[in-house]
Amino acid sequence: MCSSIALAIGVLLRLNRMTLIAGTAVLCLSCFAWGYASRAQEEVLWKPLASFQRRQYGEVWDELAETLRDASVTATGAAEEHSLRYSAAHCVHNLLSIAGVRSDDSVLEIGCGVGRIGRELSQHCRDWTGADISARMLSFAAQRLRGINNARLVQLREVGLSEFADASFDVVYATNMLAHLDEMDRWRYVQEGFRVLRPGGRILLDNIDIESDAGWKIFEYDARRYQRLERPPYMPRFSTASELMSYARRAGFHEITAHPDPPLVIVTGIR
């Protein structure tokens, strides 16, 4: 803007030709710098990680989790500790009211990240286990969970829950996690969730619901904004209630219920 104003004043004052040419060059350079900076700013929102495949979950999230702040912002959108704790409140409410987490329950979270939910939920259950495939995420979770005696962290070696024995938990849940997975791996975790639950145990799954108005708005925004950009391997893929309910039904769960919570859909089932 300043370059444009200066050039316009120069024309009005009928400055010499060389001065006007120099002013025009400055204007062009300014426009280029502004455009480049704007594009760079846009691309920073999703770190490209073009050398990784979507299913390299551990490597991708280790790369994203260089610091606790990076890990928190990328996984949850919250940067500060007080924001992390505040953002966990709604998820904890859903787990207590919809999944029925009780004080004598053993609870497993699949894809626990920095322990955002576990730090708060551990106060409401007998013990909480956070499992994640990213070593860095777990290292930051360990910092945040220090001093909480009924919480433990387990690194997953691969997609699945082979680190846990059959019938080990009363509640298994995955929140803010399935969106980053390939659909076949979503199914794998639901299968494994059934295996590690005790009879009568409950599962809770959620994802952004593309069929809801709020979910579609998010999808449409991403589709428009990233149409010409490289889409990173962890960019969210949305779900429908029928997709998540199909996984639960085919894994063997019963009393399967969808709970709209725009922009999310939450699905619960009983083993």
Mean residue pLDDT: 86
Fraction of residues in β-strands: 15-25%
Query: Mind describing the biggest β-sheet?
Result: 7 strands, mixed
* Secondary-structure element string: HHHHHEHEHEEHEHHEE
What's the arrangement of strands in the largest beta sheet? 3-2-1-4-5-7-6
Number of helices: 10
CATH superfamily of the largest domain: Vaccinia Virus protein VP39
Backbone shape: globular
Q: Examine the coordinates and then state which fold CATH places here, giving the name of the CATH topology of the largest domain.
A: Rossmann fold
Spans of at least 5 consecutive residues whose pLDDT stays below 50 are: 25-45
CATH architecture of the largest domain: 3-Layer(aba) Sandwich
**How many domain modules?**
2
Under CATH at level 1, the class of the largest domain stands as: Alpha Beta
Structure, explained:
The chain has 271 residues and is of the alpha/beta class. The chain has two domains: 2-44, no CATH class; 57-270, Vaccinia Virus protein VP39 (Rossmann fold, 3-Layer(aba) Sandwich), CATH 3.40.50.150. It has helices at residues 2-12, 17-44, 57-64, 68-76, 81-97, 116-121, 135-144, 183-196, 213-225, 241-251, and strands spanning 106-110, 127-132, 151-155, 169-174, 197-208, 254-261, 264-270. Strands 3-2-1-4-5-7-6 form a seven-stranded mixed sheet, with helices on both faces. β2 (127-132), α7 and β3 (151-155) form a beta-alpha-beta unit. The radius of gyration is 24 Å and the shape is globular. The N and C termini lie far apart (64 Å). The model is unreliable at 25-45 (pLDDT under 50).
